[in-house]
Amino acid sequence: MGKKLLVNIGMLGLVIMLFASCTYKLTQSGASIPLGLKTIDIQYFENNSQLVVSTLSQQFTEALKDRIRTQTSLSIVRGESADATMSGAITNYTIAPVSIQATNSNTAPIAGASRLTITVTVKYVYSKDKKFNFEESFTKYREFTGDLSTQEPALIRDINKQLTDDIFNRAFANW
Fold it and tell me: Per-residue DSSP letters for 103-166?
């Protein structure tokens, strides 16, 4: 019984040493952030799509900063002093019909439902550990019916939330 207890204590000690030497810090949001990563530079995401909404770049950039600020202990800084950098652009903003609504025989059919789609290209660079680096496009959409102008702000907010969730998970949920 004594040898078995010593072996179990030895195994427990190994497990404790393994966890003590982890190079990741787990946050309440489930993010796994390398211990050396303390600061990040979130650069302005310009809207390079053909359809331009004047406030979209600012809204998206701030939504991404807010997601990182509220879900991690990272400090958002500007410039080369940052441990990591996230940059990119809004590359697509489109509105397209997804279903057709029948009308009388004298008029053209109209959209029964439409889809607002936003695509963002993101480049993430963490110079201390290049295995975390990526450059990818993220696309999300929301379908709507009726007049776009009254719904557009809420649609953009919803899509920005989905996009920032995906980008955050890609950068910081390295399971």
Answer: --TTS--EEEEEEEEEEEEEEEEETT-GGG-EEEEEEEEEEE-S-HHHHHHHHHHHHHHHHHHH
Please provide the DSSP assignment of 72-96 as one string.
Answer: S-PEE--STTSSEEEEEEEEEEEEE
pLDDT tens-digit readout, 77-127:
999 899 999 999 999 999 999 876 655 666 555 557 999 999 999 999 998
Superfamily covering domain 36-172: Lipoprotein like domain (3.30.160.150)
Contact status, residue 161 vs residue 60, Cβ threshold 8 Å? no
Q: What is the mean pLDDT of residues 137-147?
A: 95
Confidence (pTM): 0.77
What is the domain partition of the chain in residue ranges? 36-172
Can you say how many angstroms the Cα of residue 35 is from the centroid of all Cα atoms in its chain?
A: 20
Question: Which of 122, 124, 101 minimizes the C-alpha distance to 111?
Answer: 101
**Residues present in the chain in total:** 175
Burial 161-174 (b: 16+ CB within 10 A, else e): ebbbbbbbeebbee
